[in-house]
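Section 5: illustrative case.
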């Protein structure tokens, strides 16, 4: 059973993100680049930024824009913007509908047609820990 649902899903507000099944798959009502690696452009995330603040990924260092940070280092910017050309799309880490892990973190993500990457996330007091198929466990503390 999935324990954590994205608020629009929990509230039955599918139309916050989706059209009434007209148009092209994935039937979203704003643009969202579905590739794993996305050159960072705010318009590639119009769907996310309908509700989430763009400041989430705009500041390299912050104490307020996100709780996903190590001290003041903004880890959303580090993952999504990266070098501006090869950032991870939001869906790589977050399941936009529901997840068994805190913060809608995916348990795994499809890397290519035959390989899935594991993501093990633990929320810790004052931060968290993430380990993937690609990197050893890494802690962050706010």
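Designed sequence:
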């Amino acid at each position: 059973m999935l324990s954590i649902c994205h608020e629009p899903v929990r509230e039955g507000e599918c139309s916050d993100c989706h059209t009434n099944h007209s148009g092209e798959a994935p039937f979203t009502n704003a643009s969202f680049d579905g590739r794993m690696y996305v050159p960072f452009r705010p318009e590639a995330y119009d769907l996310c930024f309908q509700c989430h603040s763009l400041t989430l990924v705009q500041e390299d260092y912050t104490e307020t824009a996100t709780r996903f940070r190590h001290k003041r280092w903004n880890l959303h910017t580090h993952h999504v913007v990266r070098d501006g050309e090869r950032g991870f799309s939001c869906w790589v880490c977050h399941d936009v509908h529901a997840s068994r892990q805190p913060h809608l973190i995916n348990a795994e993500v499809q890397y290519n047609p035959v390989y899935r990457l594991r993501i093990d996330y633990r929320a810790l007091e004052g931060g968290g820990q993430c380990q993937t198929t690609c990197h050893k466990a890494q802690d962050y503390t706010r």
